[in-house]
Amino acid sequence: MTxxxxxxxxxxxxxxxxxxxxxxxxxxxxxxxxxxLCGHLQNAGAETELISVTEPSQSGKxxxxxxxxxxxxxxxxxxxxxxxxAPSGVLLTWxxxxxxxxxxxxxACGNSGIIVYHDxxxxxxxxxxxxxxxxxxxxxxxxxxxxxxxQEAAAAMGDLGLASGMVLLPHPMLPxxxxxxxxxxxxxxxxxxxxxxxxxxxxxxxxxxxxxLAPKYNLEIVGRGWPAVNGWTVDxxxxxxxxxxxxxxxxxxxxxxxxxxxxxxxxxxALEQAVPIVGRAGTSLRELYGPQSRLLVRESxxxxxxxxxxxxxxVEHALGQGRTExxxxxxxxxxxxxxxxxxxxxxxxxxxx
Length: 353
What we know:
It is a single chain. The longest helix is centred in the C-terminal third of the chain and has 28 residues, at 322-349. The chain is globular, with a radius of gyration of 21 Å. It has twelve helices and 13 strands. By secondary structure, the protein is an alpha/beta fold. Helix 7 (203-213) links the parallel strand 8 and strand 9. The protein has helices at residues 31-43, 56-59, 63-83, 101-109, 131-137, 151-159, 203-213, 241-249, 265-272, 286-289, 308-320, 322-349; strands at residues 2-3, 19-24, 47-52, 88-92, 113-116, 145-148, 166-168, 190-194, 218-222, 233-235, 253-255, 277-280, 296-297. The protein has two domains: 2-6 and 17-169, Rossmann fold (3-Layer(aba) Sandwich), CATH 3.40.50; 190-333, Glycogen Phosphorylase B (Rossmann fold), CATH 3.40.50.2000.
């Protein structure tokens, strides 16, 4: 675990469990993430309590109602933490108000709050996430702690002047499944892209891959908001957690075609199923597989370009020895995540705040 948090002092006995109130304002989108996070904390000996709020896209309710429910969830979490006789803290899985949540969490939870910042520089417009807001809140006295899951996110927080009190931890992950799933579909192996469309998705790359991979493989994209992509079967809809698990488990390889991202929840979930992923090496994927993995495509030259042959080679490796590599990488990453979250429980959540 990499940490820039203040030195620990006044720690209770290691046998003293902390009570962690986890607030998840994206009850559907982050359900799997939150389950893995709570699992790590519980395995470390913490007592966890989850307060979850369903996001407007899934509840059918308006954003104002969601915001009110979110603020009430923070107040309830702060109240539970203050009433606890054990060392306690509030962990927010997603900052609804961006950097303004340094203020809302401090007001609701006092000095016991920790905020997970997944996307310090969001790809889409996000309330409260501008550099101006970051400059305003960085001088907040004893602001809540922050938690990130990649070196890229840590660097972005540092660039914004928000590195103080920050902890870098592996993305939460469930143990690797040893279940065997029958592959769906007909014909060749299933090569999929999964997840919501965003502007950083490299559509041109996918179309070039299709010109080389089809019809040898079943090429499928499943996720809300995707446009038509030549050579790929596109299912542009939101899928449930159970269906997403099934899509991952029945994939022979998953491509992560992102130009810029801080971490990929899909890649972590693929590791849980020992399904190999293919993506760029100069991203947080190297923290899952190691920088030398043949599943990762290395960039070269001043413009950081990659040849299509490198992508094809990585896909073919994934469909050959990729599952064995994924199973080992998943086991090692999950063990590292468990150790790191246990260290957070001992040395950060339990410190006097």
